[in-house]
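Technical note accompanying the year-one report. For the benefit of new consortium partners, we illustrate the data format agreed upon in the data management plan: each record pairs a sequence with a C-alpha cell string. No post-processing was applied to the example shown here.
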Amino acid sequence: MDAKLIGYQMPAGIKELRRSKEAEGYFFGALSPDDLVAVIRFAGTVFYPDWARALREAVYRGVPLSRIRVARGPDSRIVGFCMYGGYSDIQERFGPFGVDPNAQGTGIGKILFHDCLTAMREEGLHGAFFLWTDEQSSAGHLYKNAGFEVSRRFHVMKKRLG
C-alpha cells in the first residue's frame, strides 16, 4: 500500500486524541538514545526478531533516531513504535510498526502512525509505502482510513514436492 504525503496534515480528531493521551501521561515522538535498547527488546520480544534486527541495522547504518517514533505509557514503558527509512535506506519505506497487544484499540497506534506520517512530511517526503498487510485487519483499516491504497498484490503459492 502507498499514500501521497503532499499536503498531508494530521487529522484534527487524531490531534485531539493525542492531547487526551498526553494528558494521561503518554509520550509520542522521536526515539531517544536512552530508549534504544528498550525499543529493540520490545520489537523483538513482543513482535518479531526480524523487527529488532531491522531497528539495529537502521541505527548501525546511521538512520536518524527521529525516523524511529515511539509511544511510551504513563509508566515510561514502551508501548509502541514505528520507523521509516530504515530498510535499504529507502526514505519513504514505512515500517515496521507495532503496538503492544494490551494497548491495541486505545488509539495509541493511530496517534503513533500519524505522528510518523507527520515526521515524514516534515522531512519533505512526498509519499509513504510498505510492502504488505491484511487489508481486513485493524492495521489495514487504519492505513485505508489514512488514504493508503493497494498498489500491488502478492500471492503465496505452494507446491508439494515428492
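Partners are asked to follow this layout when depositing records. DSSP finds five helices and six strands in the chain.
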